[in-house]
Every structure is written in C-alpha cells, then in structure tokens.
C-alpha cells in the first residue's frame, strides 16, 4: 500500500493553476539582488520550485520526508533536494536570497524557532514568502479539520493577522499580505544588520 503522504504529494502536483498563482506572487516581490538562490522549506517533491527554475540561479528544496525527496529528485534534476527541517536548516548564514514555504508553516512544531532559522539563512534584504491555508474559509476549515481531527497532526494554523504579527517579531520588516485562491501569502524582508559607524 502506498504511503499516504506521498499520494497526497503526487495529487498536489496536478494543481497547476495554484502553482501558477504562487509563481506570480513570488515574481511580484522579487528584487534583482534576491534572484541567486531560492529555498523552499517543506517543499515536498519540488513541484512549485520547478516552476521557478528559469528565474533563480539555484533552486533548493528542504524536506524532512525521504520519500518525497526521492520522488522529487527523480523528476526534477534541476532542483537540489536537502533532507532537513525548518528548525535546523543546513545552509550557511545569509546563503539564500528568497525563502518560500507553501502550506507547510502550520506543520512546524516550533514556529518561532523556524522563523529564527529562516532569518538566519536569508541574506540581508532577502525575501520571505509564507503561503498558508486561510482557516476563515470553508476550504481552510476543512483542511484544518482533516489534518487535526482525522490525521491527528496537531497542526497550528494561524490567521493572516497572527502570522503577520509573528513574522514582524522575528526581525522581518515591510510585511505585506497577498491573497490567493487557496489562502494567503505573507511577504516580508529580512532586516539588514545594523551598520557600524566609526
């Protein structure tokens, strides 16, 4: 019997419309300085990041699930796959220009630690994009019910206002909110470290 998580990942690959919509949001918030490396945290099989391979010099997916990594690596040789979690990202400080996480943030057991790590790996003025399920919608309520009641995942879904506030507490500036047909995207910039004046 196939692994249920992999089956869900394969089904999500068929959702081209949603991926095109997220691609547009990412492109709308890019700067020339941020087009070097994209990291997709909790990126599964890399289906979204693949749609951005023409924009970035390097595309990386960070994913804890080995089955999803293997599946993605077989189908997307242009994407680099790294096994790991949002709480300990195996990338050097300031090594990433853009960090995205799509419908994964609610799975992170310690969201504050994850945001600290995201800030660490983003270069100054790098872009953070967190796409999440909007639990105020019927679809969002169904996703939350399915994950927490039926699957027992213990996911922590935040409203867009809660996520905007949380991102601001972790050194990200200029937070904005974009809406999508599937939920919302919080976009923020990693604050530059203070300059030393002599």
Please specify the SSE layout and strand pairing:
Layout: H1 4-12, H2 16-28, E1 37-41, H3 47-50, E2 58-63, H4 66-75, E3 80-83, E4 96-102, H5 111-121, E5 122-133, H6 138-150, H7 160-168, E6 172-179, E7 183-190
Parallel strand pairs: 1-2, 1-4, 2-3, 4-5
Antiparallel strand pairs: 5-7, 6-7
Features:
single chain; 198 residues; alpha/beta; Rossmann fold; seven-stranded mixed beta sheet; 35% helix; disordered N terminus; disordered C terminus
Description:
The protein is of the alpha/beta class and 198 residues long. 35% of the residues lie in helices and 25% in strands. The protein has seven helices and seven strands; from the N terminus they run ααβαβαββαβααββ. Strands 3-2-1-4-5-7-6 form a seven-stranded mixed β-sheet, sandwiched between helices. Strand 6 (172-179) and strand 7 (183-190) form a beta hairpin. The termini are far apart.
